[in-house]
Design brief:
- This protein is an alpha/beta fold.
- The protein has a single domain, classed as Metal-dependent hydrolases (TIM Barrel, Alpha-Beta Barrel), CATH 3.20.20.
- The protein contains nine helices and ten strands.
- The strands form two sheets. Strands 1, 2, 3, 4, 5, 8, 9 and 10 form an eight-stranded mixed sheet that branches.
- Helix 3 links the parallel strand 4 and strand 5.
- Helix 1 packs parallel to helix 2 and helix 6 packs across helix 7.
- The longest helix has 18 residues.
């Protein structure tokens, strides 16, 4: 295995409603664990009930600049970012936000499926796993084709509640919709994310993750990121060695690096 990766481009601060630490606390923790590049990607979310969640961006960017001034000289590149929830359903608002703010990292995620939170087993509604998995990947393909972003986050998120109900997935049963979504990601130059939140060396659905990554390569996908999706400073970089092992098992030599860092010569 190559050396442990030093990037983490998906994490949430107190500018997200579910974040527990400030940007400065996140930076301190990231630096202490040896990371070199991070992005703080707080939520912009449109909940089905009509509530629109988004950071106070004037304060957010002030704090990002302060973190760069403090932690940059210590060897940590601090990037701005955003995680857009279900952005394909809110295109006009997404385009307005991305035109108004210059984010280094833009993540698109599917958090709601037919009005149900995909973290929750209720999103299955007695349907059985595979119709829901198919529908989920169809929506990921729609996001990849229609929303300008760098990353498609946690493609395996629907497996989390699904495995609770039905056990680990057999991804070959949804091969066609998964491959169609991956083709859309590859065609539009999206980076596919390995989310390390629940990765372990135990069986789980790690084999399915490797299979999906191999299909992504076959579709022409070239870039995969390994991110923690941390909501607490203690979660930054979690299971990164497992994520990197899965990346390499699928034939990718190295994780994606953000162009904003490369352009700065880091």
């Amino acid at each position: 295995m190559h050396s442990v990766l030093t990037t983490d481009y998906h994490m949430h601060s107190t500018f997200s409603p579910d974040g527990h630490h400030t940007p400065a606390e996140i930076c301190q923790a990231a630096l202490a664990m040896g990371l070199a590049e991070i992005a703080i990607t707080d939520h912009v979310e449109w909940e089905p009930g009509g509530r629109h969640l988004r950071p106070d961006y004037d304060r957010y960017f002030d704090e990002i600049e302060a973190c760069r001034a403090t932690f940059g000289p210590q060897g940590l590149s601090v990037l701005s970012g955003v995680e857009l929830g279900n952005p394909h359903e809110h295109r006009a608002e997404v385009e307005e936000l991305l035109a108004a703010r210059q984010f280094d990292v833009v993540i698109s995620s599917l958090h709601w499926l037919d009005g149900q939170n995909v973290h929750d087993t209720r999103c299955f509604n007695g349907q059985g796993p595979y119709p829901v998995y198919s529908h989920y990947f169809e929506k990921l393909g729609e996001i990849a084709a229609s929303v300008p972003c760098h990353l498609i986050a946690h493609f395996d998120r629907i497996f989390w509640p699904g495995s609770t109900l039905y056990g680990p997935p057999d991804v070959h049963q949804v091969e066609e919709p998964v491959r169609q979504a991956l083709a859309a990601m590859a065609t539009h130059g999206r980076v596919l994310e390995i989310n390390t939140r629940f990765l372990t060396y135990e069986p789980g659905w790690n084999d399915s993750i490797v299979t999906v990554l191999r299909w992504f390569r076959e579709a022409g996908g070239t870039q995969v990121a390994v991110n923690s999706d941390a909501h607490r400073a203690t979660e930054i970089g979690r299971s990164r060695e497992v994520g990197q092992a899965l990346l390499e098992a699928a034939g990718f030599e190295a994780p994606w690096r953000c162009p904003a860092v490369q352009a700065a010569g880091s």
